[in-house]
UniProtKB/TrEMBL annotation:
Catalytic EC class: transferase
Pfam families cross-referenced by the UniProt entry: Aminotran_1_2
Listed SUPFAM superfamilies: PLP-dependent transferases
Record keyword Iron present: no
Family per similarity comment: Belongs to the class-I pyridoxal-phosphate-dependent aminotransferase family.
Signal sequence extent: none
Protein name as catalogued: Aminotransferase
Keyword S-adenosyl-L-methionine tagged: no
PROSITE patterns, per the entry: AA_TRANSFER_CLASS_1 (PS00105)
Domain Aminotransferase class I/classII large residues, every copy: 15-367
GO BP term (any one): amino acid metabolic process
Amino acid sequence: MRTIANELKAQGLQVINFAAGELDVDTDELVKEGARKAIDGGHNIYTPTLGLPELRKQVAALVTRHAGVAYAHNEVGLTAGAKQALYNAAMVLIDPEDEVIIPAPYWVTFPTQVELAQGRPVFVDTRPHGYQLLASDVQRAITPRTRALILNTPNNPTGAVYGREELAKIAALAIEHDFWVIFDECYASLVRAGHRHKHILAIEPRLKERAVLVNSFSKSHALTGWRLGYVAAPAEVIKAMENLQGHTTSNPSSVAQYAVSHALAHDDGSFIAAINRALDERLRQALAIVADMPEVKVAPPQGAFYLFLDISAHLGRRLGDLVVADVDQFCELALREAQIALVSGAAFGDPSSVRVSYAIAPGDVVEGLHRLRRLLQRLR
Ligand SMILES: Cc1ncc(COP(=O)(O)O)c(C=O)c1O
């Protein structure tokens, strides 16, 4: 898709990229200030593997505030993005043939990491319930080999924010059947107006000894490229992760750590609040256009910055001689015919949908969705 997009751009066509998994804004000025200080202060050497002691304390305080359960500095660790935190979790917790329950649609990396640890992903379909995960469906997926459940709320790709009641029941299942809950809350700071991220530990504090909390500054501070995330878990799990990380990547970027430490010390919440306001407005405009798309279903997202559009009614239709057999083909057609880059739902385990990021320039959101609407109207 990227090759086609580049070809089209070389022909002078304006390609609208709905595929990015990141915010389109510059990082917080506080982060830049902290980075400049770190560079000028000569902080060019290794830090401890799981991060600067001061930052670990700050992160422990942050997690304590969000989870409503006390975390100490030896129960948290800094990683090169949430991705490394998840990878560490997979490697230290999953043995060959262990089963890991993953709600589908899912973020692409989850099943692959489970497979890298030689575990087996077991998918639970959330589509029948507007992408909400039901505890009863989790219960049906549990076997004696169940080792973990990966929860991602707010969700990529669907934008669902899981509700309190189901989270409470899911936490009870994890305690009863003794499996880990890997709680990926990378988008916790990005919730749409009228919604709130619900923390599973705030709902069920007893889950702490079975919980691995994964978060990241990638989205909350718009610094995906700087690579800084974190994990919170029981101290012995963090220790195992330290051993693994010490022999794989060592510490995450020292400059990024100093930068975020400075930002956390001075953060007043205004950076992310402005982003959320802008995203609320973009989503409002986007949903108005989607409402006019023929036979497209959407569950209005409650968090993150994606629209997950069910276009299954259009699969099997034609544009001229071309039959749009599946969603991958639809994405290629959308790029060639309408110069819009979408992400195929097949990558997320849902071959009926496409993912659209609305965290791009407001004009592009509107123009790109109109192009999509016109393309769908041409299919017969
Ligand atoms: C659900 C989810 N988890 C984890 C990540 C990884 O984030 P990071 O950039 O912090 O590694 C992403 C990135 O898009 C994501 O969508």
